[in-house]
What does this fold into?
Amino acid sequence: ILDLKLFKVINFRQANLGFFLFFFVNVGSRFLRPFYFEEVRLFAPSISGILMMISPSVMLVCSYLIDHLKNYFSTKLLVIVGNILLSISMLMFSFWNNNSSLVFIIVSMILLGFAMGFYYPTATQIGMKSLPKGKHGMGSASISISKSVGKLVGILVFSLLFQVLFELFSNQNLTNLLSKSEAIQIVFTGAFVISIVNTFLSFRIKSD
It folds into this structure.
């Protein structure tokens, strides 16, 4: 049973909330990205797959480098930078349309990869280091639940919002392609707003 008293610890509470919001935004938007690539830009599935691989690849490289960065910057600062990069990438996503250049798309995906690479290990460390001895197993489970719930809710909300907006634009006599593009842009704008909120919340973390 999860000890709810752990959430009285500021950094642990912030880590759980931060992961929920980060995964809500990232995974929710990830659900729409292949749809944008294939339905709006009409890319082949193979090209869509390659584009989807950019962010995880950058994240792997960044995760390797993060240990070296911790020698020069505080963990709190790296968490904040991760959230800022997520916000910038979502802002760039919100400008994706049927005429966006491939370079612009790739750069925004690279920034998202850096955001994940900065945020995941440092936010985990922030949360776990704040726990009392003997509570790390429970803390790890709690953070995993926050991630999973964030993924689920993100996909549900983003897909529902897209469907509602798509039907709204379709009823305004817009073309099918333009309706999809406009709906995706608004959903990504919402993702940007939420990522900004998460950025401001990360300033509440106590410095290590």
